[in-house]
Specification:
mainly alpha, Helicase, Ruva Protein, domain 3, two-stranded antiparallel ribbon, 60% helix
């Protein structure tokens, strides 16, 4: 399933701070912790807890969020379907990066082992 330009634009303009509380709820509802969520976000983006809070406070868009991120070199190992899209088939880099994060949060909520989530080989 291909993303549309409108879909990609909507994701780019969405603020990280508007989605972050949903990540917390999803993870905590299934027994995960905020610390684990921060570990996963830091692995993908390189953002420390303080930097993440700064980006939340600044209400940055996902576009800005991922422009500032230093994407993990193993991020390409994140595969599968999330929100109806096969991640490895998403053409738009920004949309693919957002779906990487969605997939990691989903795996954390499903209580996968951290070594698997963080693609430790």
């Amino acid at each position: 399933m291909k993303t549309t330009p409108e879909h990609d634009e909507r994701i780019a303009k969405m603020t990280f701070s508007s989605v972050y509380p949903h990540y917390i709820t999803k993870v905590e509802k299934k027994g995960g912790t905020l610390e684990e969520l921060h570990q996963v976000i830091e692995w993908l983006t390189g953002f420390s807890k303080n930097k993440l809070q700064e980006l939340i406070d600044d209400k940055v868009t996902f576009e800005t969020f991922f422009q500032k991120a230093k994407l993990n070199p193993n991020a390409h190992l994140i595969k599968g379907v999330i929100c109806g899209y096969r991640i490895e088939e998403i053409q738009t880099p920004l949309t693919r990066h957002v779906r990487y994060l969605d997939k990691l949060v989903d795996e954390l909520a499903k209580r996968r082992k951290m070594e698997k989530i963080l693609r430790v080989e």
